Amino acid sequence: MKRQIPLIITFLVGFIVIFSEFIPQRFFGQISSTLEEWFLIISGFAIILGQLSLFKVNFLKIKFKQPNWPYYIVTLISFVVMVGFGAFWGTETSSGFLGDGAKIVATLGDKPFDYLFHNVYQHLSATMFSLLAFFIASAAYRAFIARNVESNLLLIAAVLVMLGNTSLGSALTGWLPESLKFLHLPRISEFIMKYPNTAGQRAIMIGAGLGLIGSSLRIILGIERSYLGGK
User: Fold this and answer.
1) Helix (H) or strand (E) holding 49
2) Strand (E) or helix (H) holding 84
C-alpha cells in the first residue's frame, strides 16, 4: 500500500487534469483548479524540504571532511545569511520580522538582502556566464570543423549568419546591383534565421513536446516509478 496509494493518486489526478482540458464542464474545471492550488501548496512544502536537505547534505560533508569541504562551509554560510537577511529585514517589496531596516537602508542604500543580491549574487552570476562563453566558443569550434556534409553546412550557415549581422557583411555585398539583391549577406542571414533556423527550432520543440507527453503518460499509468524512490 505504501507504493500503491501514491500510484492511485497520481493516476486519478493526472486523468482528471487531462479530462478537464478536453471536457468543458464546470465540475471538471473546479476540480482541476482545486488540484492546481494543492500543487502550489505542496510546492511550498517541497521548497522547505529541499532547503533542509541542502543543509543536511552540506553539513554531513563538512562533518566528515569530504573533498573540497571548505566550499560547503561557504554554501551554508551564504544560505544562512541570505535567509536571515530576508527573514529579518525583508526584500524590496516586502517587510521582515524587524521591519524595513531604515537605518541599514540609509547606510547601504538598500535592504541587506537586496544589497547582497545586486552586489554579490549578480556579479557572481555574470562571472559564471562569462566563463561559460569560453566553453561555448570551444564547443562551437569543434562543431564547425569541416569533417562531413552536415558540419560543412553548419560551418557555411554560421559564417553567413555572422557576416550578415555585421557591417563587414554589408560592405562585402553592398555593391551588388538591385537585381542580385537576394545575394546580399544581410538578406541571406535573415533568410537562414527566418526559415531553416525557425523550422529546426520548431522540430525540436515538437520533439520535446512529444517526449513530455510520453513521460507524463508513463508516470500517470504507473510505468515510471522512479519518483517513488524505487527502480
Assistant:
1) helix 26-63
2) helix 69-89
Task: Report the Cα–Cα distance between both ends of the chain, in Å, rounded.
Answer: 17
Cell digits for 27?
465540475
- Distance CA(2)–CA(11), nearest Å, equals 15
Helix/strand/coil for 24: coil
Give the pLDDT confidence of 38-47 residue by residue, as tens digits. 999 999 999 9
Secondary structure (3-state) at 41:
helix
Alpha carbon distance 96, 113 (integer Å): 11
Q: Is 123's pLDDT higher than 90? A: yes
Strand partners for 91: 94
* Residues 189, 163 contacting (CB under 8 angstroms): yes
Please state, in angstroms and rounded to a whole number, the distance separating the CA atoms of residues 30 and 36.
10
What is the Cα–Cα distance from 79 to 71, expressed in whole angstroms? 12
Rounded to an integer, what distance in angstroms lies between the CA atom of residue 6 and that of residue 9?
Answer: 5
pLDDT digits (tens, 9 = 90+) for 42-83: 999 999 999 999 999 999 999 999 988 999 999 999 999 999
Share of the chain above pLDDT 90, in %: 38
d(CA 53, CA 47): 10
State the chain's mean pLDDT as an integer: 87
